Amino acid sequence: MLIRDAAGCKPRPGPLRGPAATSPGLCPIPAIFSLGTDHGLYIIVQDARREIDRLDAASLDLARPTTSGAPSLPAPAGAVRRTVRLARLWFASEESAVAWTLAGITLALKLAQVGVQLRINLWHRDAFDALQRGDGAAFAGQGLLFLGLAAASMALAVAQLWGRQELSLRWRHFLVRHLQARWLAGGTAWHLNHLDAADNPDQRISENTRWATFLAVDLAAGLLQAALMLASFLGVLWTLSGTLVLAPGVALPGWLVFAALLYAAAGAALTWALGRTLTPINIARNAAEAEHRFTLLRARENAEAIALTAGGPAEARGAARSFGDVVRVMRDLLRAERRLMWIGSGYGLVAGVLPLLLLGPRYFAGIVTLGVLMQAAGAFVEVARALAWWQENWPRMADWRSHVERVVALEDALAEAEATAAHPAIAREDASPALALRDLALQAPDGTVLVAAADAVIQPGERVLLRGESGLGKSTLLRAAAGLWPWGTGTVAVPAGMMVLPQRPYLPLGTLAAALAHPGDPAAFGEAAMQSALARCGLAALAPRLAEAARWDRVLSAGEQQRLAFARLLLHRPRFVLLDEATSALDEANQAAMMGLFGSAPELAGCALLSVGHRPGLEAWHKRVLVLERGLAGAGLREAETPMVGRSLPAPRRPLAPVPDGTHRRKVAALQGRRSRAAR
Fold this sequence. Notes:
The protein is of the alpha/beta class. It has helices at about 40-60, 75-90, 95-135, 135-185, 190-195, 200-240, 255-275, 280-300, 305-310, 310-365, 370-385, 390, 395-420, 475-480, 510-515, 525-535, 550-555, 560-570, 590-600, 660-680; strands at about 1-5, 10-15, 245, 250-255, 425-430, 435-445, 450-460, 465-470, 490-495, 500, 510, 550, 575-580, 610, 625-630, 635-640. The protein has a ten-stranded mixed sheet, sandwiched between helices. The protein has a two-stranded antiparallel ribbon with strand order 1-2. Strands 3-4 form a two-stranded antiparallel ribbon.
C-alpha cells in the first residue's frame, strides 16, 4: 500500500509511525513491503485527529490555574500501577464478563496478526527467490497468495481496531458512570470543593477519563504487538543471520540480532537525550493554555461589566500577554519536536537500508539468495521497530501518564470526601422531631474557628430568623443545621421532611417542569398542581411553558428564580424549611407575598422556618430572632433581647406580576405610599 502523508512525503510502502511520520521529502519507513495492524490512510487520519483532540483536551482546564508550579508526573511504573488500579475497577465489576471477553478477543486477534506477519515474511523469501530464478509460474502463484495474505491482514487490522475501540469505550463508559455516581452522591461534590484535593472534577471525568482509557488501551495493544513481533522475528533473524567469522576461531552466531539490538539502543539513547525535555515543556504548555482560556472565559462571563466600564482594551492587553506565554512555551515545544524529528526520520530510513548493506556482501558471495536477503531485511526491520516501541511512543506516554494521574487523583479525592461525609466530626441525629443544635462549634476545613458556641432548638411550626454581621458564618451555620457541614464539634439533630432554599436556586437542565419539581419527578405532581404553584408565586405567565426545555437559569431573572424555588415548596410540602437569603432578589411586595405563603398556604401549614437574611421587613414573618455575634474565639449564638413573640404577622400580599420596569416601580411606590398612610 502506497501512502502519501499530509506533509508531502513521497509514496512509500509500510506504516506511518513515530515522530518521523510527518518528515518532508523521502518518508523514513523502509521500502520493505509488510502489512501490520495500523496500516492504511484511515488509521493515519484517525491518529492525527486523536492527536489534535488530545492536545486540545490537555488545555481544557477552565478553572483558574494554580500558581504553585507544574505538577509532577508519576514515573512510568507508577502510571502502570495507577492504570491497573483503574482497570481493576472495571474487570472486577458486574461488567467483568464483557471486559475479559473483549480483552481475550483483542489478544487472539493480535496473535493471529503476528501469524500473518510471519507468513508474509516467508512470502518475501519465496517471491524474491522465484524472481531470481526467473520462474514466472511460481511468481504468479506467490502473487495470488499475497492477495489472500493481504485480505487476511486487512480484516485482522479492522477487527483489532474494533476490539481496541470497544474495549476503550466500554472501559471509559464504566469509569465515567462510576466517578459520576460517586461525585454526585449525597454531598460528596460539595465536600470535594472544600477539600482542595482535585480541581475541576468535571474535566477529569469528561476529558481525562477519555484519554486515560483510550491511550492505555492503544499503548498496551502496541506494546503487546511489539513484544509478540520481537519474540517471533528474533528467531527468524537469528536463523537467517548465520554465523559471522570475526577472526580465525572467533565466530558470532545470530550476528544480525546483535546489530539490531545495538541499533535500537543507539536510537533509544538519542531519543532520551533529545526528548527528555518534552514532558516538562508539555506541562508548561498545558498550564499556559489553561491560563489563556481562563482569561477569555472570565471576559465572557463578565462581558457586561467590561462593556459598562469600557474595559475592553485593558482586557485585550491581558489576553495578549496570556497568549504570549502560550507562544513562548509552544516555541520551546516545537524546537524540541524538531530535534526529535532528526532521530525519527533517520531511524526509520536507516533501518530499511542497514540490513541490505550488512548482508550485501554475503549475497554477492552467493552465500544467501535474494529471497533470503529480503526476508532477513524484513525481519531486521520488524525487530528494530519492536525494540523502538517506547522511543516512538514517548510523547504519547507522557500524555497518558498525565491523564491517568488526574483520574486517580480524583478517585483519591472522592474517597477522602466520602470519608469526611460518612464520619463527620459533628454528630448527626436523623429523623429528629425538632431541629436542634447542641454544643455546636464550627470550623473551616483548615481548622479556623468560625462559630465557637451555638445552642438552639426549633420546634415544629416555629419561625426563627438568624441575624448577624456579614461574614460571621450564618450560612455556614445553616449548612450545619442541614447536616451538610462536617467540620467542628457538637451535635445536630436533623428533622425529616426538610428543604433548603439557597440564595441562588439550582435549576437543572431540561424542561421548566423538571426545574420546578427538582429534585423530584414532574410526573409525581401533575401539570395542574405545577401550574397552580406557579400562579400562586406570581409566575402564571410561565404555566404554558412547563414542557419547554431551555436554560432556565438564563431565561429567568434572579427574582423569578427565587419565586420558582418557593413554588417548589408548595409541591414538596416540607415540614422544616431553611432559607438562606432566599428573598434577596425580590422587591418588598414580592418578598411579603412569598413569606406570606407560610401562613396562608395549606401545603405549608405548621411548617417550621429558619431564615438567614438582611432584608428589611423579614422580622415581621418570624416569631424568634437568633443573633450571631462576633467573639474573640469565634462567633457565638444568642437569643435576641426583644423576641418577636406576640407580634401578629402581616396579611399575605398577592405577588406582583412581571411588568415593565417603570410600571413596576410605580406600583411599588404606590403600595409603599398606602402602607405609610395606613401607619399614620
